[in-house]
């Protein structure tokens, strides 16, 4: 096998031929599905006559090919591994092809495959070429007509994009439905579903009065798990009208739940296909977090109808054009629907843990990469979440109103087109009059910028001098970095009054909360008329995706935690304070010195508990310590055992000091009210369960009793799963084992609950867990062919159990590498994703580095898919 070669953004050329209309007929069969395609093709006027026609195609068995009804001779075209070339074609013509594909042999879950007996497709980014020969690139947009033929008894439901226009029966017990999608679309948005499915139906009337039928298609046993997705969809449709003026554009919108799916969901035009984990919910099977995730993903895919489908990407380097923007849109939607500060805290916690780690590792890439080997490897936190942070910065820079004018302009100017990130940013610049030239560097420069800040108060002159210095560390292929345009939202909190002081900069009064613009490597900001010594509150609301270092003392942080008017920074001050204390304890653990709890952290917690914070969800966040992964992210060298020991010690110390408060919080927030996934209930449950985590940290009688009772009460999955996790992660096997067994037996029939059953076992910190992982891999319910199960077992072990994955003997690494090697053959996309924790070897001690690299080498010695090849090469470069 020759080495896979990179594709470069700078090589982009518009297509020589476009397809204006695509007519497909599928005759479904598990081993030999026939796909007939009639393409209406035209040469682009800018290209000369005689340019050969190039079509993508992979693993297709060509049965027939004709142009304008004339079958082609064998010398008139050439078929290779990646596609075909037709040497001579007219200026405009009809191309007919017929191919055979094998859905049952498709374990990569890209193209047409079968899942639990139903046929479904996944075409983004390059799956359509596994269905038929086609210019499979997003800048080729056609209207589609799709006829699906299948066995009437086993496949009563036949779906595709758009509206059904014809249906009928055929000889041999077969039937067909023809679908027509009037909106030109790229091939990656094509979808087909066929199976024995049931639907739940509802309606939505758009702002201009269009009646839209909404359908969610599921297996019969899941009919009772669709309410929340349907309600979320209706809320999302209304929100997009109100927030962005965007209306739905077909008479029918369908969602289908599929058990085997590589990602969360897919925004195919009019026919969204969802991982069942991202759409099905029931109080007894899904946690609050799952309910919120479903709401966010349903909204995200729906929002793509405009940001992605009506206006799409010119090429895959522009992926963040649709993904960053759409994540920003779904974040705002969820913030409006739930607790806005908590949504921001959750998003930023995740971002600073996982995206920062990506940006600091060997696969770091810009939000708009300039080359890739396998685009499937670029559905990353950088493209999605950092892309969203960039759009958020844009919105803050130009202001909400100009942002809306900019987005209106973008949607109207580029409707029906495939465009670039510049096109989007230009609309924002045009609508606001801002110069966004320097800002564009955010898209091309990888790595997390760091701002080193320091400040001085001049009492005599009532001035505060703030100095900000920015630098972005080198990343692979980008040694030199340029200064970015970084918006820093800030306040100065008076140490006497505890209030935000008025800000005067260069003679201009800015109010008490303002955005300053850092554009140079180093810049000084002199605030005048500062009447008392302040503590600065910087990058409020995480105003830019950067690391901001300020030499805060622990008293400063306790002060900000108590007084900052910005909820996000109040929370963050508490996190920073805890991190300082954790640092000391990590060092103590490493040096074999006795650990001593910093009383200031205890007092800060006591103050939070006494502050009577109304929003219980915010309070729960303020009482939550930084995760082990986030602590690791702050350490120069990661010592998983020291981190675990230090964090456990802090939890136990806090419980011993504040036990009565936690008991009270637990009691006060217990409720018998029927479950609803609404913000107040979710907030109370999260607070109660945080309290329970503390009580269980010392496993005293009350904690064990509460956990057991909460599990036994079986009120809702949030409470049951939390209690069970605490028990299983604790030391009382006599209590945990029977509970785990009962849970497993009760839910053996429900794959989404079983995923949780697998995960919570393999994330326990006890030393014997690797044996448990191996044992569970042999469980009859485990399969490498189901991505959810792989993530629930192997993914959870490797990413959420640092102490055991990083065992000093390397057995955790070996297990992951073995799995990657097997999955490389079955499902390259999932295999490549699974490697991530091994790519982070540089963060660990030398012995572990050697072990991790040895496993990467062992993977590299295999015959690799391009996906795995690209990741491993980068990790070992
Ligand atoms: N656009 C899809 C991602 C599909 C990726 C497949 N490799 C889901 C989403 O972002 O909405
Ligand atoms: Zn998306």
Automatic annotation (TrEMBL):
Query: Which residue intervals define the domain Peptidase M1 alanyl aminopeptidase Ig-like fold in the entry?
Result: 447-550
> What EC class does the entry list?
hydrolase
- Which ranges of the sequence are coiled-coil? none
Q: What is its EC number?
A: 3.4.11.2
Needed cofactors, names only, are: Zn(2+)
- Reactions accelerated catalytically: Release of an N-terminal amino acid, Xaa-|-Yaa- from a peptide, amide or arylamide. Xaa is preferably Ala, but may be most amino acids including Pro (slow action). When a terminal hydrophobic residue is followed by a prolyl residue, the two may be released as an intact Xaa-Pro dipeptide
Could you tell me which InterPro entries the record lists for this protein? Answer: Aminopeptidase_N-like_N, Aminopeptidase_N-like_N_sf, PepN_Ig-like_sf, Peptidase_M1, Peptidase_M1_dom, Peptidase_M1_pepN, Peptidase_M1_pepN_C, Peptidase_M1_pepN_C_sf
Q: Which Pfam families match?
A: DUF3458, DUF3458_C, Peptidase_M1, Peptidase_M1_N
Q: Which gene encodes it?
A: pepN
Listed A to Z, the keywords are: Aminopeptidase, Hydrolase, Metal-binding, Metalloprotease, Protease, Zinc
- Highest taxon, organism lineage: Bacteria
Q: Which SUPFAM superfamilies match?
A: Leukotriene A4 hydrolase N-terminal domain, Metalloproteases ('zincins'), catalytic domain
Q: Which GO terms describe its molecular function?
A: alanyl aminopeptidase activity; metallopeptidase activity; zinc ion binding
Q: What does this protein do?
A: Aminopeptidase N is involved in the degradation of intracellular peptides generated by protein breakdown during normal growth as well as in response to nutrient starvation.
What is this protein's record name?
Aminopeptidase N
Which stretches make up the Aminopeptidase N-like N-terminal domain? 106-189
For biological process, the GO terms are:
proteolysis
Write out the similarity annotation.
Answer: Belongs to the peptidase M1 family.
Q: Does the keyword Ribonucleoprotein apply?
A: no
The UniProt record lists the Peptidase M1 membrane alanine aminopeptidase domain at 229-441
Domain (Peptidase M1 alanyl aminopeptidase C-terminal): residue spans on this chain:
555-877
């Amino acid at each position: 096998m020759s080495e896979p070669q990179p594709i470069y953004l700078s090589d982009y050329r518009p297509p020589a031929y476009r397809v204006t209309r695509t007519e497909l007929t599928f005759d479904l069969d598990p081993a030999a599905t026939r796909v007939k395609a009639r393409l209406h093709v035209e040469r682009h006027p800018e290209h000369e006559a005689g340019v050969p026609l190039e079509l993508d195609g992979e693993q297709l068995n060509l049965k027939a090919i004709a142009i304008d009804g004339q079958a082609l001779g064998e010398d008139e075209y050439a078929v290779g591994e990646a596609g075909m070339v037709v040497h001579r074609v007219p200026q405009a013509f009809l191309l007919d092809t017929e191919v055979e594909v094998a859905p049952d042999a498709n374990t990569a879950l890209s193209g047409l495959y079968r899942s639990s007996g139903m046929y479904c497709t996944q075409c983004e980014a390059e799956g359509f070429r596994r269905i038929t020969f086609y210019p499979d690139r997003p800048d080729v947009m056609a209207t589609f007509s799709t006829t699906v033929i299948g066995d009437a008894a086993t496949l009563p439901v036949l779906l595709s994009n758009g509206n059904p226009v014809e249906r009928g029966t055929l000889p041999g017990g077969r039937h067909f439905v023809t679908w027509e999608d009037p909106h030109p679309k790229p091939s990656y948005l094509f979808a087909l579903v066929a199976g024995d499915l049931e639907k739940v139906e509802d309606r939505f009337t758009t702002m201009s009065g269009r009646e839209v039928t909404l359908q969610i298609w599921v297996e019969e046993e899941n009919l009772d798990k669709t309410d929340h997705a349907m309600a979320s969809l209706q809320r999302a449709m209304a929100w997009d009208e109100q927030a962005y003026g965007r209306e739905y554009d077909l008479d029918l919108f369908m969602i289908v739940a599929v058990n085997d799916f590589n990602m969360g969901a897919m925004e195919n035009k009019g026919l969204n296909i969802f991982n069942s984990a991202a759409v099905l919910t029931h109080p007894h099977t899904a946690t609050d977090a799952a309910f919120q995730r479903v709401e966010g993903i349903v909204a995200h895919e729906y929002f793509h109808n405009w940001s992605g489908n009506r206006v799409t990407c010119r090429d895959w380097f522009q992926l963040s054009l649709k993904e960053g923007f759409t994540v920003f849109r779904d974040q705002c939607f969820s913030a409006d629907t739930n607790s806005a500060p908590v949504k921001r805290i959750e998003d930023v916690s995740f971002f600073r843990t996982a995206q920062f780690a990506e940006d600091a590792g060997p696969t770091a890439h810009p939000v708009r990469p300039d080359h890739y080997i396998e685009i499937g490897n670029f559905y990353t936190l950088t493209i999605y979440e950092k892309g969203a942070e960039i759009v958020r910065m844009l919105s803050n820079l130009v202001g909400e109103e100009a942002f809306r004018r900019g987005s209106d302009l973008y949607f109207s100017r580029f409707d029906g087109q495939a465009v670039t990130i510049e096109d989007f940013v230009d609309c924002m610049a045009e609508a606001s009059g801002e110069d966004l030239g320097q800002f564009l560097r955010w898209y091309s420069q990888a790595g997390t910028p760091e701002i080193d800040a320091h400040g001085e108060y001049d009492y005599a002159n009532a001035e505060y001098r703030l100095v900000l210095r920015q630098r972005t560390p080198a990343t692979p292929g980008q040694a030199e970095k340029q200064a970015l345009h970084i918006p820093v939202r800030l306040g100065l909190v008076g140490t006497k009054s505890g209030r935000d002081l008025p800000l005067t900069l260069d003679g201009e009064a800015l109010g008490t909360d303002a955005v300053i613009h850092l554009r140079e490597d180093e810049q000084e900001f002199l605030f005048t008329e500062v009447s008392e010594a302040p503590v600065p509150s910087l990058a409020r609301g995480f105003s830019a995706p950067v690391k901001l270092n300020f030499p805060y003392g622990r008293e400063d942080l306790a002060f900000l935690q108590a007084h900052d008017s910005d909820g996000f920074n109040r929370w963050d001050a508490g996190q920073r304070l805890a991190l300082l204390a954790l640092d000391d304890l990590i060092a103590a653990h490493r040096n074999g010195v006795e650990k001593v709890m910093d009383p200031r952290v205890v007092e800060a917690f006591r103050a939070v508990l006494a502050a009577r914070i109304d929003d219980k969800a915010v309070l729960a966040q303020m009482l939550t310590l930084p995760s082990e992964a986030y602590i690791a992210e702050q350490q120069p060298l990661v010592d998983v055992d020291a981190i675990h020991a230090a964090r456990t010690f802090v939890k136990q110390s806090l419980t011993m000091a504040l036990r009565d408060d936690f008991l009270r919080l637990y009691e006060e927030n217990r409720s018998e009210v029927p479950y609803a996934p609404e913000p107040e209930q979710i907030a109370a449950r999260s607070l109660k369960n945080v309290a329970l985590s503390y009580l269980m940290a010392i496993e005293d009688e009350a904690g064990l009793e509460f956990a057991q009772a909460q599990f036994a009460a079986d009120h809702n999955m949030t409470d049951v799963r939390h209690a069970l996790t605490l028990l299983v992660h604790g030391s009382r096997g006599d209590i945990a084992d029977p509970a785990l067994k009962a849970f497993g037996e009760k839910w053996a029939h429900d794959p989404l609950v079983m995923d949780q059953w697998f995960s919570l076992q393999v994330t326990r910190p006890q030393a014997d867990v690797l044996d448990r992982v191996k044992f569970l891999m042999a469980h009859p319910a485990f399969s490498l062919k189901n991505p959810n199960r792989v993530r629930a077992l192997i993914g959870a072990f490797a990413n959420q159990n640092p102490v055991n994955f990083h065992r000093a003997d390397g057995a955790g690494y070996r297990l992951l590498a073995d799995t990657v090697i097997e999955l490389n053959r079955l499902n390259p996309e999932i295999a490549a994703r699974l490697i991530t924790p091994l790519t982070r070897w540089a963060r660990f001690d030398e012995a572990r580095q050697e072990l991790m690299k040895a496993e990467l080498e062992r993977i590299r010695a295999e015959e690799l898919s391009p996906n795995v090849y690209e990741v491993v090469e980068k990790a070992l470069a």
